[in-house]
Amino acid sequence: MRLILKDYIETLKEEIELETLLENILIMNDFKDIVRPQKGVTQHGVDFSAKKNGAIYLFVLKQKDIDKNNWNAGNNAVRPTLDEIQDVYIQDRIKDSNSKINIVVCTNGIIKQNVQADWNGYINRNSTDNTKYLFWGIDELTSMTEQVLLNEYLFEDDIKSDLRRSLYFYEEDVNFVYYKKLLEKLILKINISDRRKKIYKKYLIVYLLINKMCIAYASEKNVKLAEKMSEKALIVFWNFIIKNNLYEKIEEIDTLIMLYKQYEDCCENYLEEIKKVYNYSPSFPIYSPLEYRITIYEVIGFISSYTYYLYYYYGNINQVIENVNILITIINNNAGFFYPVFDLNSIEINTLIFLLKEIGNKQAEVLVNVLTNKMIYRMNMSKYYPVEYENYDKALQIEFNEEVDEFNASVLITNLLEWMYVFKNQKGIDDVVEYLKKKFPNLTLNTLQIDLKSENYYLEGNIYDSIISYVLDYGEKIMDVNTAIKKIHDNNKIDEYNFYKYGSLPILFITARNYRIPLPSNIIYKFLEESNKE
Fold it and tell me: Which of 335, 333, 338, 323 shows the shortest CA–CA distance to 283?
């Protein structure tokens, strides 16, 4: 555990990351009057100041090792900084000459041997009865962080056990069972009745610190898994906000913003890996046609949900346009996209079409029509259909054109027909329905909505208690189906859900992809009103 912590702290590359870690350590160790550095304000050498047990602590933050290159040379060298604290900061800011002062050099490295004598000599010459010098290096930071994370007062043994399992087995734990259990147990420790108590803030900090450490550890070896873990941490905390009606509380929203920032960083790391291969045709390994198509949808779903997140919060920025071009290129280079393996690939398809429609990209309608036509063509030529849930064994049987159960239910096909309805492609709907009635006479077309009263269950991955299912009976008159769609739309307006009302619509797509739960059709029906205005 200590080695993992040490690796994590050593990897902190940004100045802000080290500042945040130090601030959290100070809070958890009951330091008072903590003052963080302010940009544009002269600090006179002090990055942090705090008080504890009547003593003043002045912190000098440096990244990596202290050696000959940064001890006494350069603008940010250690020795001139310490001199400035003595000559200016203490004289100007600390009025009581009898104050006990501890000047702490803090770094996520060590003092190298070639400057150890310089350091020892400096503190011997400048230490007094009231002024002491301390060094908090990687070993000290690791020890203090470990005490915070494994504090007997904060955590029971089962939480510590889940933490270790999350770190040690994250590659084998493909569904993140240990990590999700860990996050949920941490959330349960954050008792809303303690909001005004110090312990509440401590648990918020530990929630952030633990998942940052787990994700940083995973990202060194697998950026895709790290991205999924960042989604999980975000979803669990957003559900905590929903359950406790904390939409406008500063501490919780600040924590949520940090989780969003972590999500962005993980997405960018994963996206950089995809950029290395997306221009090739095919873009991904094809040793197994089935795995190849599964990978296509994994990548398409990730880029689509992240790009919509960027569009929603930052607008139609250059990165959104670039990511959409990457998506279109992947589709053009990988014909396997047009033959989704699972019915649950409706998640990726809906996210992609929603994104394109939302940003006004005309490819949305074209993509729906081409995808539907190619799927129908393959169904006609083979035993292919997108299998229920994510039944890999049945998908493998279909791949080898073996006999399987009849195609009898689909959300994916229903969603494509709903998109056609939005695009007013009545002829397309008629043709698809006519074919399906002949080929699969027992096929049920289901459309799903989130129960307004059970939104939080959706965010817990509980499909059974959160989803309402409707059957669109295309065996009846199309007019009756259109009437049913309008009625479902009127009863399930997307703007009535908390994730929409409180400016977090992207969390819906992130949750659906992460928990493998179908998206509600009201994300499609959202466009009905604007379509009717045209």
Answer: 333
Structure tokens at 124: 């011997």
Bridge partners, 136 (sequence order): 106
Buried b (16+ CB within 10 A) or exposed e, 239-248: bbbbeeebee
Q: CA quadruple 499, 503, 509, 514: dihedral positive or negative? A: negative
Distance (Å, whole) CA 359 – CA 421: 19
Residue 94, token pair as written in the block:
């600390």
Joined together, the tokens standing for residue 136 give: 């908090």
Closest CA to 518 of 324, 388, 375, 334: 388
- Pairing between β-strand 467-471 and β-strand 444-450 as defined by DSSP bridges: antiparallel
The 10s digit of each residue's pLDDT in 199-235 is 677 777 777 777 777 777 677 778 888 899 899 999 9
Strand order in the sheet with 467-471: 409-410, 444-450, 467-471
The pair phi, psi for residue 34, each rounded to 5°, is -75, 125
Identify which of 150, 123, 145, 149 has the alpha carbon closest to the alpha carbon of residue 134: 123
Q: pLDDT tens digits for 246-261?
A: 888 888 888 888 899 9
Torsion angle defined by CA atoms of residues 199, 202, 208 and 210, in that order, rounded to the nearest 10 degrees: -100
- % of residues, the chain, pLDDT over 90: 51
Closest by Cα among 466, 28, 420, 408 to 210: 28
Beta bridge mates, 387: 342
Amino acid letter, 453: K
What pLDDT shows up at residue 53?
A: 93
**Residue 471 phi, psi dihedral angles, 5° rounding:** -105, 125
Residue 478 has pLDDT above 60, yes or no: no
With tokens 């046609």, the residue in question is 289
- Which tokens sit at 217? 């550890």
Question: Is 195 exposed, middle or buried (CB count within 10 Å of its CB: 0-12, 13-18, 19+)?
Answer: middle
Pair 12, 209: CB distance under 8 Å: no
Classified as helix, coil or strand, 446 is strand
Contact call for residues 525 and 489 (beta carbons, < 8 A): yes
Pairing outcome for strands 48-52 and 32-35:
antiparallel
DSSP conformational letter for 520: P
Q: Looking at residue 206, what is its pLDDT? A: 74
What is the reported pLDDT for 137? Answer: 93
Q: Letter for the amino acid at 402? A: E
